[in-house]
Design goal:
Elements lengths: L13 E5 L2 E4 L4 E4 L2 H4 L8 H13 L10 H14 L5 E5 L2 H16 L3 E5 L8 H5 L16 E4 L4 H8 L4 E7 L12 H14 L2 E5 L23 E4 L10 E5 L18 H17 L1 H16 L5 E7 L2 E6 L4 H11 L1 E2 L1 E3 L3 E4 L7 H14 L1
Parallel strand pairs: 3-13, 5-6, 5-7, 7-8, 8-9
Antiparallel strand pairs: 1-2, 2-3, 4-10, 9-10, 11-12, 12-15, 14-15
Helix pairs in contact: 2-8, 3-8, 6-7, 9-11, 10-11
Length: 373
C-alpha cells in the first residue's frame, strides 16, 4: 500500500524541533516561519508542554465522554478567562472543519433556518457543510453542493444584510482574518455592520478563528480588534500546539439538547492536558503580547522591500503580496536559506510562525529574504 497523493511535497523530512526551529534527517536547521500551518503556537518541544503530555500519558490517554473529565472543565475555565469569553460554553472536538460543521449545525438548530451566508475567498474546511462554505469550487464535490450557502463579497456588509433580510439565514460565518484567501483583514466597520445586521434579523454570527485565533493576531481572537462579540467562535490550529484538537465557544443564549452534538475523541484526556499546558505557557511567557510586538517589528522591516507590493497582517499572521507567483521564492527560501514559509493563492507568501518568535529570529528572516530577492 502507498499513500494517497493529496499534497505536493517538498523533499525534506523534519524529525526534530526546538522553539522556532526544525531539523531534517541530515541535521540541517530551518527557521520555521510556517509553524506547521499556524499549529505550533508555543514553539516546538517546549519543556513544560512535553512534561504535561508525559505526565498525562502515564496516567490516562483516553476515556469516553460518557464519564466526568475534570480536565475539560479546567480547560474551559482557563480558556474563558484568558479569551474574555468566560460566560460562554465549550464543545471540544478534533479539527477546524469539525468545529465549523458543528457551529453551523448548532446555528441552524437554534434558529430553525436552513441557509448560511459566507464570503468570497473564504476557507472553512474540507468536510460537508464546511467545504460548501469555502469559496473554491474545485474542492467542493457534487455531493456537497446543496445550495445551503450563499456567498457575498468579502467586506460588503450591505450585501450580507440583503441576504439576511430574506429571513431564512441561520448564520453568517466570517474569518477573523482570511488565511487561505490571502491574509485579508476585515475592517472594523465591516464586522460591526455584520454584528448589527445579525442582531436585527435574528441571525447567528460565527467567527471562524481557526487560523487567526489563539493569540496569533496580537489579541486572543482577531475579531476582538474590532470590539465585536461573536455568538459562536471556532478555534483549532494552535489550541494544543500540534495535538489534534479544536473547540466551539458557544454563547449563553444557546441551550444544549442531549444528542444534538457529539464526539468520540473530542476533549480526550491527553488533548486537554496539552491545551492546558499551552495556556500555561501563553500566560507565563506573554505570547499574545509578543505576537503583537514582534509582528509589528517584522512587518515594518518587510515594508522596506520594493519587490513586495503589499505587506498586510496583524501580529504573527502576515501576508506578503508579490507581483508574480511565489512558488519559486518559497522553494529558494527553503533550500537555499533554510526557511519554511507558506503561501496563499498564487502571489502571496504567508508567514505563520510560532508565537515565541523573537526580534532576532525576525531579523534572520529579513536577511535571508533579502538574499533571495
Amino acid at each position: 500500500m502507498k499513500l494517497f497523493d493529496v499534497y505536493p511535497l517538498f523533499d525534506v523530512e523534519i524529525v526534530r524541533g526546538k522553539g522556532c526551529y526544525v531539523f531534517d534527517t541530515n541535521g540541517t536547521e530551518y527557521l520555521d516561519l510556517y509553524g506547521g500551518h499556524a499549529v505550533i503556537s508555543v514553539g516546538h518541544s517546549h519543556p513544560h508542554y512535553l512534561e504535561a503530555m508525559r505526565k498525562q500519558s502515564e496516567n490516562l490517554v483516553f476515556y469516553s465522554n460518557s464519564v466526568v473529565n475534570s480536565l475539560q472543565s479546567r480547560f474551559a475555565e482557563r480558556l474563558g478567562r484568558i479569551s474574555g469569553y468566560d460566560d460562554y460554553q465549550l464543545f471540544l472536538v478534533n479539527s477546524g472543519a469539525e468545529a465549523n460543521e458543528n457551529a453551523m449545525k448548532l446555528a441552524s438548530f437554534h434558529t430553525g433556518r436552513p441557509r448560511i451566508v459566507a464570503f468570497s475567498k473564504a476557507f472553512h474546511g474540507r468536510t460537508s457543510l464546511a467545504v460548501e462554505a469555502t469559496d473554491n469550487p474545485r474542492i467542493v464535490a457534487p455531493v456537497n453542493a446543496n445550495g445551503r450557502v450563499t456567498f457575498v463579497p468579502f467586506g460588503d456588509a450591505a450585501a450580507a444584510e440583503a441576504e439576511l433580510a430574506k429571513g431564512d439565514v441561520a448564520a453568517v460565518i466570517v474569518e477573523g482574518i482570511q488565511g487561505v484567501g490571502g491574509v485579508n483583514i476585515p475592517s472594523s466597520a465591516f464586522l460591526r455592520a455584520l454584528r448589527y445586521a445579525c442582531d436585527k434579523h435574528g441571525t447567528v454570527l460565527i467567527a471562524d478563528e481557526i487560523q487567526s485565533g489563539y493569540g496569533r493576531s496580537g489579541k486572543f481572537f482577531a475579531h476582538q480588534h474590532s470590539g465585536v462579540h461573536a455568538d459562536i467562535i471556532t478555534v483549532a490550529k494552535g489550541i494544543a500546539n500540534g495535538f489534534p484538537m479544536s473547540a466551539v465557544l458557544i454563547g449563553p443564549q444557546f441551550k444544549p439538547v442531549y444528542g444534538m452534538l457529539g464526539t468520540t475523541f473530542g476533549g480526550n484526556h491527553l488533548a486537554c492536558a496539552a491545551a492546558i499546558a499551552v495556556l500555561d505557557i501563553f500566560e507565563q511567557e506573554n505570547l499574545v503580547d509578543n505576537a503583537a510586538q514582534v509582528g509589528t517589528y517584522l512587518m515594518d522591516k518587510l515594508s522596506q522591500f520594493p519587490q513586495i507590493k503589499e505587506v498586510r497582517g496583524k501580529g504573527l499572521m502576515i501576508g506578503l503580496e508579490f507581483g508574480e507567483p511565489v512558488k519559486e521564492l518559497r522553494r529558494r527560501l527553503l533550500f537555499e536559506q533554510h526557511v519554511f514559509t507558506g503561501a496563499s493563492g498564487t502571489n502571496v507568501l504567508r508567514l505563520l510562525p510560532p508565537l515565541c518568535l523573537t526580534r532576532k529570529d525576525a531579523d534572520k528572516f529579513v536577511d535571508r529574504l533579502a538574499a533571495v530577492l
